Amino acid sequence: MESENIFLFVPNIIGFARVVLAIISFYFMPTNYVVAGWCYITSALLDAFDGHAARYFNQSTKFGSMLDQLTDRVGTMCLLVALSMFYPKYAFWFQLSMAIDISCHWIYFHTTILQGKTSHKFIDMSENPIMSIYYTNRLVLFIMCAGNEMFYAILYFLHFTEGPLIFGKSLFMILLWISTPIAFVKTCISLLHGYVAAINLSIIDVNERRNMKKVK
CB–CB of 107/179 below 8 Å? Predict the structure, then answer.
């Protein structure tokens, strides 16, 4: 049987396109908000399509999952780097946001992989009714992720323009007020992810150390 080339799977090709669009947006971020904005937003929107493609074509892969995670995290991080330059007064908060986003997602993703190789009892956030909605309701998950991205993207656009006016009010400012609480809640969820992942990782450590002592 001929081996499959997972790099040519449809969702992974979409993932590669996301990477290219993200790099283009990074290049134009300091100078051309129109090109940077369109490329960044398109890359973010394609995040929804690669998941659907993976399920439709039965082409879900660990590589694709990792590529998706890295593109999301790096994309947001580079946008926050630009915001730190545009709004130096708030650089600390952007740095803190980057640290929370990267560290909490990394430890959660890594711990999830390790949990799949063990049979110990772990803390399951989906047992919490609020977190259960977050995990099982795709609309809620989309609103949280899109709202978080919107918050930072709108801050970026506001550096260059106030955007179109609606009843004398800046559309971008309206969207900023709408997305701010969503971004705050999303950050709290990321912190919760990190906390629970740390607890679960400690469970793995304790059990591995116990098994090592039994061998000795």
Answer: no
171 pLDDT higher than 70: yes
CA distance linking residue 175 with residue 173, whole number of Å: 5
Q: Is 72 a catalytic residue?
A: yes
Please count the helices (runs of H) and the strands (runs of E) in the chain: 7, 2
Residues 81-106: pLDDT tens digits?
999 999 999 999 999 999 999 999 88
Which residues lie below 8 Å from residue 135, measured CB to CB, with a gap of 6+? 125, 126, 141
Beta-carbon contacts of 62 under 8 Å, excluding residues fewer than 6 positions away, are: none
> Are 42 and 94 contacting, i.e. CB atoms less than 8 angstroms apart?
no
Angle, alpha carbons 53-58-64 (nearest 5°): 65
- What gap in Å lies between CA 216 and CA 213, rounded to an integer? 5
DSSP designation for 4: P
Q: Find the catalytic residue in 47, 72, 101, 124.
A: 72
- Do 93 and 86 form a contact (C-beta atoms < 8 A)? no
Instruction: Give the bridge partners for 166, in sequence order.
Output: 169
* Structure tokens given for 119: 């049979």
